[in-house]
Specification:
The protein is mainly α. Helix content is 66%, strand content 0%. It has 14 helices and no strands. Helix 3 crosses helix 14, helix 4 packs across helix 8 and helix 11 packs antiparallel against helix 14.
Amino acid sequence: MSDAKLALADGRRTPVWQLALRYALLLAVLALTVGPFLWQLSTSLKGPNEDIFSSPPQLLPSEPTLNNYARVADIIPVWDYALNSLKVATANVVTNCVGSALAGYALARLRFRGRKVAVLVFILAMLVPIEAIIIAQFTNMRDLGLNNTLVGVLLPGCIGAMNVLLMRNAFLNLPYEVEEAAFVDGANTWQRFLRIALPSVKGTLAVVAIFAFMGAWDDFLWPLIVLNDPENFTLTIGLNYLHGTFANDERLVAAGTIIAVAPLILMFACLQRYFFRGVGEGAVKG
């Protein structure tokens, strides 16, 4: 291993055993996080004649096939369920990005009475478990006539308290001088928000979008409570059928799992360059 790889920032050399320990820990964490997904992917590609419970486990299928995915589509209308989930998740991303950006900017930049109280309310809202308010949410949806609708699935989570606080912190990191200069030039609040502040927090918007999409796509409890018509089922509810009548066929369950996880991986792959910018992107380019 070269000296450059063994050198720390202060010039000291890192012992080889420390580097080996670090990489061993990283590989262990990687195996714990990625291992179950790879196993599900392998199981979903195995043919009916392969033993998925062999010892030692065989990760690579000897007879790879996509027939399990076709069988999932034959058993349940998986693509209709996926479309319902996509509608809810897309709408959830839009409402969270727009609502959180507006609320976050107001809490970070505008001066109004009760601003600190509003921030405290958002913080307290994060501390309330969903199980404590889910009955009240169901009652509200019933009174509004939104039970068994995708709007009823979307509405309770259309603006998340955590997302508002993320956007608030992102806007707080922006220098005031830039907006002050725009104010002197005659820019109103909306112009400062849309042309200066919002383009500077794309990374945080990507974080909010990913969190909102994942939360809506993976949600199981709330759609299970509010939906009763199979035509409106989301993907997580529809795939639950594979864990019931067809629970003995682990290949179908694995294929359904991969179908559910694939859009999340695709979205993260598209937004990862913005995701890692986080809230520390408030610096303005010269």
